[in-house]
Design brief:
The protein is α/β, with parallel strands linked by helices. The chain has one domain (about 35-135). About 45% of the residues lie in helices and about 15% in strands. Strands 1-2-5 form a 3-stranded parallel β-sheet. The chain is globular.
Amino acid sequence: MVEGNRPASDNEWERVTRGGAAAIKRWIDVQMFGKSCAVVLIGQKTAGRLWIDYEIKKAWQDGKGVVGIYVHNLKDANGRKCGKGRNPFDNFAIGRTSLSRIVKAYDPPYVGSTNAYQYIAYNLATWIEEAINIRTRL
């Protein structure tokens, strides 16, 4: 959770998805409204997912900062870790430059979930500010 934003519960997401693609886009647009940066949590299956791609594209088109954080060393609700995913910013280009050469994706240097989480929590505000600064310079 960033800046008090809570993740969608399974029930809420099911309700939104029942409305189809237009409802999902509206929901994402509302969630992003008034925000200055999109934080993409990069898991094993993040890259290439339709709605993740939509969020990245929308954030960039709206002039927002964009930053990625690899979460493969964090435990899920069942206490398991996933494999490291591909960088989702590789799927986009600004002119001839891959977005992954512009947008930073941070990979916490800890294998332990607690240490990785603490590293993210400690650095997140700095990463967000940096992403906003990168975006405003372009």
